[in-house]
């Protein structure tokens, strides 16, 4: 009796008969209570023979597709020896199928769906858009930036009462998901929909293959970067790139159904309310305390605006971040990772809800992305929001839009561009300060050589034209450093001025650092002593303005701006 017929006979969902064997990494069909009645299956090799696509499931948790002749249940062939766990291409594919939960959360789920029999069926669920060069493909040895867009388009069953009745869809919820180069941490940056910004020119691919140039718009709401005037998600990618200075690799777009279907597939998402809520707009009606939400209730929770905080979209963003963090924790839980039933439901829900660019336009490409993220610990995933302030051009009693708060946004965006994690900031800041202090102490200790004994070659590696010449003249005439030479332009440009010297030239380095106003960060000591007539090497960087002006100071420690809003993905927070 196969899994399907047994499920019908005993009124048991056949997907529930599959359990993960932690010793082998394979799913096993449990036909009885005896270990002898459990049969191990392995993941089949992908062949040219296309698997039959099952019909669309009517329930949130689709059953295992019926085995075809000559094939076993999902994950393996009938008969024969089980393949060793962890070996071969199939095992590598088995490690993770991820899309995005909300769909961001599903990105972080490792599992064994990608090699199941309906691999091609899931592939067919995806909707793919050509963004005409707005992005590309993420690289495995570089940071990854994925733009997750939630649209308010009324597509999908039961969504006619949400969003704008005649809207083609705005960028209603937008999150830039930055994954560090070493894959140890991630920052999820929410961009407020009511942010006033410039939308750049957008070349948009039309259905007939032609490209339409949609003109730029000055001072528009950010959410107009999608849908309006025919703009596609590539326009939103270009807008984010221009706004943040961060190159977006790929996008993922979902509608209202994503929250409803994924929350149902995972068996509900735990949330906490600090007070009773009865919101007439979203129809959310819950008592204070903990709840597990799915379907329409889950969507109502993330849409609620007038019952949390100061009833603004910024407070709704916080609630959405809390919900997504909880969904991530639920999807990473043992109960989800070891339940084939939930996996099947998640695979269907996620792929049916998802629109992607060509760089992520197949289950294989999404699986590659998931493989980059599967080992990330949720304690190293931080949600935050682009810092903004009320639009000063609006009357005080009619505040509807916001503008970027540059004093907070600039350092935050710099951190993301330079791949600094919000969760690692304090540790790195403390270590950098200790190192700088120790280096400064070492620099200040010891003698200074007389100016006439200082030998140095001067190079221009980024300063204004003629900097090496003017510095040479200043050193000789103003400081008495007669053994200095001008060597013109350096072989490469430097951001900061640098003085290279040998251990036995430390006294000369201290003397020259005093004259030039160099900090300890600008000094680079070698490991081998120099000969008596060997000069030091001074390279003027982009920070050099003119001789005598202090330079080469260490960059300010990269730290999160004070008061930055954030939600840690591994922590449960009650909505207020």
Q: How would you describe this structure to a colleague?
A:
- 28% of the residues lie in helices and 20% in strands.
- It has 15 helices and 26 strands.
- With 576 residues, the chain is α/β, with parallel strands linked by helices.
- Helix 6 (256-265) crosses helix 7 (295-303) and helix 6 packs antiparallel against helix 10 (340-352).
- It is elongated and about 80 Å long.
- The two termini are 53 Å apart.
- The strands form eight sheets. Strands 4-17-12-5-6-7-18-26 form an eight-stranded mixed β-sheet, sandwiched between helices. It has a five-stranded mixed β-sheet with strand order 22-21-25-23-24, with helices on one face.
- Strand 1 (18-20) and strand 2 form a beta hairpin.
- State the end-to-end distance: 53 Å
Q: Tell me the total number of β-strands.
A: 26
Average pLDDT score: 78
- Uncertain runs with pLDDT below 50, 5 residues or more? 1-18, 31-117, 553-557
Proportion in helices: 25-40%
Overall, the morphology is elongated
Total helices: the number is 15
Radius of gyration: 30 Å
- Secondary-structure class: alpha/beta
